[in-house]
Write a structure and sequence with these properties.
2 copies of one chain form a homodimer. Chain A has 2 domains: 1-96, Arc Repressor Mutant, subunit A (Orthogonal Bundle), CATH 1.10.10; 101-169, Dna Ligase, domain 1 (2-Layer Sandwich). Chain A is 39% helix and 18% strand. The first copy, chain A, has helices spanning 11-23, 30-40, 48-57, 64-76, 119-132, 148-152; strands at residues 46-47, 80-83, 91-94, 103-107, 113-116, 135-146. In chain A, the strands form 2 sheets. Chain A has a 3-stranded antiparallel β-sheet. The first copy, chain A, has a 3-stranded mixed β-sheet with strand order 5-4-6. In chain A, strand 2 (80-83) and strand 3 form a beta hairpin. The first copy, chain A, is globular, with a radius of gyration of 19 Å. Chains A and B meet through helix 1, strand 4, helix 5 and strand 6 of A and helix 1, strand 4, helix 5 and strand 6 of B. Strand 6 (135-146) of chain A pairs antiparallel with strand 6 (135-146) of chain B. The first copy, chain A, binds a DNA duplex (25 and 25 nucleotides) through residues 26-32, 48-49, 62-66, 68-69, 88-90.
Chain lengths: 169, 169
DNA sequence: GTCCATGCAAACCTTTTGCACTATA
DNA sequence: TATAGTGCAAAAGGTTTGCATGGAC
């Protein structure tokens, strides 16, 4: 198996995925390791197309079905998180960073994604857990808007709603 | 035009949508009014199939394409919000409640959705706007977990991750 | 040797689009 | 009467699945 892209030393992370597969009694295949390596090699939020393209750029040709199936395993293992930023397809991000839990800032102009930590959200979780007798397992906080470069480039937030919006009737 | 479902007096809301259409120079059609009426007649988060079904139950047969096109207008008018709770399709909720801005609690067992207000999120928005020079336009906070009835019924959170999860490597 | 994964293509599902026809203003 | 909407069916686009072949253990 050849390294597809080695910005970081992905070997320990890939090994962790191997451990998960072994625990589940599933074979460790070249394809699975290669897909995992691509996902672990970047901190970006990759789409399936981007993963496929990265593999191809590294000389590896892996079927989309296998990529989807491997991503499913990576998500089940909890080593990878699935995101949907409303683009019509999913994105995947590994959780082996120093900041495994974080929220997202998404620029609606350029599609850029930034990450931030928020201890406040955990407090909100606790509060609603109490008030609604709800047991939270995970949450998702996404703030959409314009990033500074886009705003400086003159991007505007289009307003198409009613000319005199009503908040309550 | 016949009332499809009148749990609440939806007429003023539908009229608001009419005003939006007029402002945009678009015709007010029976189909548009009927779809709007269904969406405004409930506080639930409706899927396109549910809207179609409700219309059919009321004796109205409106093509799915028209429903999708009307929902697009309702969302543009800001009278309706689009949600994606990860079910593989979208849901729609009108914003003409006493609580137009709110967050969601989603039970992963029964699919139930509860709403709660959080002023904390606005503070988080302000904070990251400052820290990241980001101009927020909207946000989405969703907390997934188990609601009390499901938990009492014995529902468990399946854990399939690595037996010894690592937070950081 | 057994079981499972892979790759391809077909199927799937939601959503969008093209087009002939119809309704709105 | 001009302009835009409707409904149907087909297309689109991401994701999943069936099946014959090939690989892991």
């Amino acid at each position: 198996m050849r390294a597809v892209r080695t910005q970081q030393n992905t070997a320990p992370f890939v090994r962790l995925f191997g451990r998960y597969l072994r625990e589940q009694g599933l074979p460790i295949t070249q394809q699975r390791e290669l897909v995992a390596e691509v996902v672990f090699s970047t901190d970006r939020h990759l789409s399936v197309d981007e993963i496929e393209e990265t593999l191809r750029a590294g000389g590896e040709r892996i079927g989309k079905a296998t990529i989807y199936r491997t991503l499913d395993l990576l998500v089940r293992s909890q080593l990878v998180e699935e995101h949907d930023f409303g683009e019509g397809f999913k994105r995947y991000e590994h959780r082996l960073s120093p900041q495994p839990v974080h929220e997202h800032l998404i620029c609606t102009e350029c599609g850029g994604v930034w990450e931030f930590r928020s201890t406040e959200v955990e407090k909100i979780e606790e509060r609603v857990a109490r008030e609604y007798a709800f047991r939270p397992t995970r949450h998702k906080l996404e703030i959409y808007g314009l990033c500074e470069p886009c705003r400086e480039a003159g991007a505007e937030i289009p307003y198409e709603g009613l000319t005199c919006p009503i908040e309550t009737v």
